[in-house]
Amino acid sequence: MFNNDYELKGKHATYIRFLSATTNRLDKTAKAAGIINTAVDIYAIAPLIGLAYNKKAAEDNSSNDTYSILASQIINHQADLDFAFRLVLLADNSTELSSDEKIDRAFRQDEQPEKLAENLELFHQYMRGGIEWLYDHFTDGATTREDYLEKVYEVVNLYNEDFAISV
């Protein structure tokens, strides 16, 4: 788990390219907010945002756009991804599972290929939902670097209000 390339398709590929600062580093003329350092960072935090805002999305095949996150990048973030994966499986309320069943799903099904695939799909649905949430918040009325920085401030405040945390 989390040791292979991962490919995003369709609008999610477009959105992750827009959100990643790597896009701006590789192409200074690209239209990108660049608010999160790398695509693998987005891959690690987007499922938590999707979970927090109960937003899941199916794989999008409406365009031929693709974006690959290399296995070497994923392996370097394996601990973060594993933590996010288990947190999503524990906190997800989209099924009627009991607490014990959620614990089983999060910690005891990695060796069952069919269950692992099902659990990874749930994680990826929240990841795609989180990417959509981020993209929607950073494209609403923002076009300049200053606009994007202001949006970062707004999103942090929104998260603070929604989840009552101290910043």
Question: Which labels suit this protein?
Answer:
8 helices, mainly alpha, two-stranded antiparallel ribbon, single chain, globular, 167 residues, 2 strands
Record the SSE blueprint.
Elements: E1 6-9, H1 10-19, H2 21-26, H3 39-52, E2 66-69, H4 71-76, H5 78-91, H6 99-107, H7 113-139, H8 145-163
Antiparallel strand pairs: 1-2
Helix pairs in contact: 1-7, 3-5, 3-7, 5-6, 5-7
Overview in brief:
The chain is mainly alpha-helical and 167 residues long. The protein is 63% helix and 5% strand.
Number of strands: 2
**Order of strands in the sheet with the most strands?**
1-2
Shape: globular
Helix content: 55-70%
Oligomeric category? single chain
Distance between the termini: 33 Å
Strand residues, percent = under 5%
Number of helices: 8
Radius of gyration over alpha carbons? Answer: 16 Å
The ordered H/E elements are EHHHEHHHHH
Mean pLDDT: 91
- Assign the structural class, choosing from mainly alpha, mainly beta, alpha/beta, alpha+beta, or little secondary structure: mainly alpha
Largest sheet: 2 strands, antiparallel
* Spans where pLDDT lies below 50 across 5 or more residues: none
